[in-house]
Design brief:
61 strands; 8-stranded antiparallel β-sheet; 7 helices; 8-stranded mixed β-sheet; 846 residues; mainly beta; coiled coil; 33% strand; single chain; elongated; S74_ICA
Length: 846
């Protein structure tokens, strides 16, 4: 008796009154023996009860094997979990029933439900539908199947099985732990989790495998058995092929790894052999179909099509054609009518059968392509309207006629594009033939493109030809049969433009353009330029003039010196020439006008600048010349040769200005070059100096005219928060600026005016002489203040204005005036007048 079959046979109180039959059940050659099973035999069983008990045990064994194969490590904690229980009421205490999703039998042969206990072992053990199991004991039960026995009552609880107990009452129980699920349920049959592929299976460690263990590969759906003796996984029941189709019938066959439909002798790995195609034109036979039902019922059909009466291959074709519901659409047809061995493409929609879809393009057996043309005579023949569309649906017009090619139109495979006539006899069009390309060859002015000398492109018109391209490895050529080249636009070159002929001297240009002539020749008639000296490529200069046998003649005259001459016939002539001591000379024809330049210095008899009033605009006098000059300084200095050796600066001590200083006060005289260095226009400085002298002279004349008594007292500045002056006595008080928050003068005598007390609030007075058209500053208002300014001249001219000093500018608002203007310049208030002495007073009002 099997030790796991727990019953009352060993009990002293047991009285056996009926024969107890224990049966061993086999599947194939493998004996299935449970880990723990028990039956209560405390009553005498009849034959019917024994049969029922046996079938219940079979159902339990079948169920637990199926559930073991469906078990897996669902929570990735290293322990196997069985499928979750159906916890509907009525099952064993603490458990439930086998879920409907399982393939295991859920009842015995009498229709009684099998009880089911499922545990979740491992570190993660609280999943829904499973009993929380042990976290450390690999021998703890993982799943158990319970038959309620003859009394149809579950006497066994899941908790008692987890505690190591067995079946209770007449129940029959089989329980598996995780090891039994992984390695098998007996000593001869073992199971394991399905794996991804055979290669993964073969990579498992042999130490973890049991002889006879079964594993399923997911990619091929094949079952393999481990042979420990040979260490090989052996396919069970066949080769382990991924093809589940292993049955034959009258139309479907699987043999020698080949699948066929309609024939027992397939000619390929997969063959569909249809029935017979009718012999009448228009007959069709569907061979295969791929379809889907998204929206309309869409099919891609493979069909045989009879395009002419007959039963041979030459009257039938095979099509791959689209169909939606009952509407036939575009197709690809092999071996079509009129093109045996070729291919036809058709497009359109029709409910009148596959033959109603028109042909659009065909490829003949010999590779010719015709578009809207059933008989293409050329390699590519297009019979269309002359428009070829682009991706934006806008057409390019290539002519009103057809595009045709081949010996059928011209010999030697000529192609005609865009001609108005089908035979290419029209006026316009493009003709490509073995001799080149003709453009509008039937026009009055046809053009031919062909191959010229040594592969150059030859362009020929009725007037002549020109070759364009490299005719040898050293040059790119423009060659023509005409006498002259004509360019109607400027001719430019990136580096150098070279003009030469086959001789060793310059080639002159005899052409006259707009009355001017450019020509190059030898410096002296009858003599040639040195070999290879064509006037280019010397120190990267675009144009060079070189000497030939340089000499210095008698009396210092220069003979054969490089020179550039300018001639205006019967009017004038002049030249630029290089002297023997590196001096560039500019001379006229008679030599009476002369200038020279060397190393940054220029010699001559005079230098003149345009100063005609007709060439100028916005003319204004220079004002404040003396003030400007007072800010300028002259310097003695040496040029820095050490840090600027490449500039060839003059040597010796120099006198001049600093450009940065001058730019601050007279920016018109300073220019900044592209290299960042500044230059000064010393010649224009004379105008500023002249105006400074004029201003100084006017001041001197004014002072000499005044009685010396008027000069008795002058205060440049009086300022203070609380200034007190005991006595100021003078005929005239002249002050450039008087500022005081609360200034008091005890006694003031000025111009016969006496005042015991004068309260000043930012009040001032000044008397100045104003040159014609110049601005004479008086005082600088503080930001945020307001003043009332009064100006009077000896001739009665007046000016009264309000001044407001904002944060950014001075605002002058005239109130009245004649002959004098109060103006703002920068941050100063001053007056404008015409050679007048002006007395100005200002009073701060805010």
């Amino acid at each position: 008796m099997h030790p796991e079959h727990r019953n009352m046979a060993t009990s002293p109180a047991f009285s056996l009154t009926r024969r107890v039959v224990l049966a061993a059940f086999t599947i194939g050659a493998t004996v299935l023996a449970p880990l723990a099973s028990a039956a209560s035999a405390n009553e005498v069983l009849g034959v019917a009860d024994m049969t029922r008990s046996a079938t219940q045990k079979i159902a339990v064994q079948q169920a637990i094997i199926a559930l073991a194969s469906e078990s897996s490590d669902s929570d990735a904690d290293g322990f196997i979990e069985p499928p979750a229980m159906d916890t509907t009421a009525g099952g064993p205490a603490g458990g439930g029933f086998i879920p409907s999703t399982s393939a295991a039998p859920k009842t015995d042969s009498y229709g009684m439900k099998l009880g089911y206990c499922a545990w979740d072992n491992g570190s993660t053990n609280t999943s829904t539908g499973r009993i929380s199991g042990s976290t450390s004991s690999p021998g703890a039960p993982v799943l158990a199947i319970i038959s309620a026995g003859i009394d149809n009552t579950f006497n066994t609880t899941c908790a008692s099985l987890a505690a190591g107990g067995g079946a209770a009452g007449d129940d029959f129980v089989i329980a598996y732990n995780s090891i039994q699920i992984q390695q098998g349920n007996s000593g001869t049959l073992f199971f394991g989790d399905p794996v991804a592929s055979l290669s993964v299976l073969q990579g498992l460690s042999a130490a973890t495998l049991k002889d006879g263990q079964l594993r399923l590969t997911k990619d091929t759906n094949a079952l393999y058995r481990w042979n420990a003796g040979t260490s090989v996984w052996t396919p069970v029941g066949g080769t382990g092929s991924s093809m589940p189709w292993l049955t034959d019938n009258n139309n479907n066959y699987y043999s020698n790894n080949q699948i066929s439909i309609g024939t027992k002798s397939p000619l390929a790995m997969f063959q569909v052999h249809a029935g017979a195609l009718g012999t009448s034109a228009g007959n069709t036979l569907d061979i295969s179909m791929a379809s889907h039902t998204n929206g309309n019922y869409t099919m891609l059909r493979t069909l045989a099509y009879r395009f002419a009466n007959g039963g041979g291959w030459d009257t039938a074709s095979t099509r791959l054609q689209m169909k939606v519901d009952s509407t036939d659409m575009g197709y690809i047809e092999f071996n079509p009518a009129g093109a045996q061995g070729g291919i036809v493409f058709g497009t359109g929609m029709s409910t009148n059968g596959p033959g109603a879809i028109p042909e659009r393009m065909r490829i003949s057996q010999d590779g010719r392509v015709g578009v809207n043309l059933t008989t293409p005579y050329a390699g590519v023949a297009v019979n269309y309207s002359g428009l070829i569309g682009n991706a934006n649906q806008y057409p390019y017009d290539v002519g009103a006629g057809t595009i045709a090619a081949g010996k059928s139109i011209y010999s030697y495979g000529t192609m005609c594009i865009g001609n108005s006539n089908a035979d290419c006899s029209g006026t316009y069009g493009l003709y490509m033939y073995y001799g080149g390309i003709n453009i509008n060859q039937n026009n009055q002015y046809p053009t031919n493109l062909s191959q010229g000398y040594n592969g150059a492109l030859k362009v020929t018109t009725p007037s002549g030809w020109v070759d364009i391209g490299s005719e040898n490895s050293g040059w790119a050529h423009f060659v023509t049969d005409r006498n002259l080249f004509y360019f109607n636009r400027e001719l430019q070159a990136e580096t150098a433009l070279r003009v030469y002929n086959t001789n060793t001297y310059f080639t002159r240009t005899d052409g006259i353009i707009n009355g001017y002539r450019v020509w190059t020749e030898q410096p002296w008639a009858g003599r040639t330029v040195a070999s290879n000296s064509y006037g280019y490529d010397f120190w990267s200069a675009p144009l060079q003039i070189r000497e030939y046998n340089y000499e210095v003649g008698n009396g210092g005259d220069i003979n054969r010196a490089p020179r550039l001459a300018f001639h205006w016939g019967q009017v004038a002539a002049a030249m630029i020439r290089l002297n023997y001591d590196a001096v560039i000379e500019l001379v006229n024809q008679s030599g009476t006008d002369y200038a020279s330049m060397r190393g940054g210095n220029f010699w001559g008899y005079g230098f003149y600048q345009y100063s005609d009033a007709r060439l100028k605009r916005d003319i204004a006098p220079i004002s404040n010349a003396l003030a400007t000059i007072a800010n300028l300084h002259g310097y003695r200095y040496y040029f820095d040769h050490e840090n600027h050796p490449d500039r060839k600066l003059p040597t010796g001590r120099q006198i001049g200005f600093i450009a940065q200083e001058m730019e601050k006060w007279v920016p018109e005289l300073v220019t900044t070059g592209g290299d960042g260095y500044k230059t000064v226009n010393y010649a224009q400085m004379t105008a500023l100096l002249l105006e400074g002298i004029n201003e100084q002279q006017a001041v001197l004349q004014h002072l000499t005219k005044k009685n010396q008594s008027t000069l008795s007292f002058a205060i440049p500045t009086i300022e203070g928060n609380d200034a007190h002056f005991k006595r100021i006595e003078t005929e005239k008080l002249t002050a450039a600026q008087i500022e005081a928050e609360q200034a008091r003068i005890k006694k003031l005598k000025a111009e016969e005016i006496e005042a015991e007390r004068i309260s000043l609030v930012k009040t001032g007075e000044a008397e100045v002489f104003v040159n014609a058209g110049s601005f004479q500053p008086i005082f600088a208002p503080a930001t945020g203040t307001q003043y009332m300014v009064n100006a009077f001249a000896e001739d009665g001219s007046i000016a009264i204005a309000s001044v407001t000093a904002t944060g950014k500018r001075l605002i002058v608002t005239p109130i009245s005036g004649s002959g004098i203007d109060v103006q703002a310049w920068g941050n100063q208030i001053g007056v404008l007048a015409e050679n007048k002495t002006v007395k100005t007073t200002w009073i701060r009002t805010h």
